[in-house]
Automatic annotation (TrEMBL):
Every Response regulatory domain range: 18-130
DNA-binding region ranges: 138-243
Species assigned in the record: Bifidobacterium asteroides
Lineage: Bacteria, Bacillati, Actinomycetota, Actinomycetes, Bifidobacteriales
Key words, A-Z: DNA-binding, Phosphoprotein
Modified residues (4-aspartylphosphate): D66
Name the UniProt record assigns to this protein: Response regulator transcription factor
The OmpR/PhoB-type domain, residue ranges: 138-243
Matches recorded under CDD domains: REC_OmpR, trans_reg_C
Pfam families membership: Response_reg, Trans_reg_C
């Protein structure tokens, strides 16, 4: 396991962001560490995915994870740690089939970058995810028994945390900040999930729509388990926050 810590420029708070890179190929992790450290992130690289299960992940702001790894593949690793982390998780993979992408989003991944990818594309997506995670609106939204804390980035129902992933939270925050407004899946994707400053992004409409639907389904399941169901499906239009 290796660490790179680089200080940001004055007034630039990106040096506070901690990124964990998980890939069994040391050449890949070395390349990613060099690229991401240029953006003043603190980067930790792990080549044995089994180590991640034992790590303290509370201070990690974003995880880049390969899918096809020995011993514990990326999907199995995400399953084992997802309840302990709420930061964005981006998969890096040579798999190109849509089913794998849907499975990744269903497990709680926030993005899915297909290999081979350009370093500029990856850096742009990382910047976008971390930027989305740092935005602030009103500090607290309240809908009956449901509280949305925009500073802590949490949704609680009668004091119980819904334990949403970063992507699920961002979608709910978008809808909740504009209650009653219906958003089409592609609008949600572009506002919450797409790497908006990445001109090289090649997400298809079908991939994007599938990702939004999976994240929304997971969020609704977690909220329903706490006794609330604020998200409505508006047929042929999209989704709205109706609480």
């Amino acid at each position: 396991m290796a660490d790179v810590h680089a200080e940001g420029s004055p007034g630039d708070d990106r040096h506070r962001a901690s990124i964990l890179v998980v890939d069994d190929d040391p050449r890949i992790t070395t390349l990613l560490m060099a690229a991401l450290s240029k953006d003043s992130y603190a980067v930790t690289a792990v080549n044995d995915s089994r180590e991640v299960v034992r790590m303290d992940l509370s201070s990690v702001d974003l995880i880049l994870c390969d899918v096809m790894m020995p011993h514990l593949d990326g999907f199995a690793l995400l399953t084992s740690i997802r309840e302990r982390v709420s930061c964005p998780i981006i998969f890096l993979t040579a798999k190109t089939d849509e089913d794998s992408a849907v499975l990744a989003y269903g497990l709680g991944a926030d993005d899915y970058i297909r290999k081979p990818f350009g370093i500029a594309e990856l850096r742009a997506k990382v910047r976008a995810r971390l930027s989305q995670g740092s935005r602030r609106g009103r500090l607290l939204l309240r809908f009956g028994s449901l509280d949305m804390d925009l500073q802590a980035r949490q949704i609680r129902v009668d004091g119980r945390n819904a334990n949403l992933t970063d992507a699920e939270y961002r979608i709910c925050a978008l809808l909740a900040e504009h209650p009653g407004r219906a958003y089409a899946p592609m609008q949600i994707w572009e506002a919450c999930l797409a790497a908006e400053d990445d001109p090289a992004a090649d997400d298809t409409d079908s991939d994007a729509t599938a990702a939004v639907r999976v994240h929304l389904s997971n969020a609704r399941r977690k909220l329903k388990a706490l006794g609330v169901d604020p998200i409505r499906t508006i047929w042929s239009v999209g989704y709205q926050w109706a609480a």
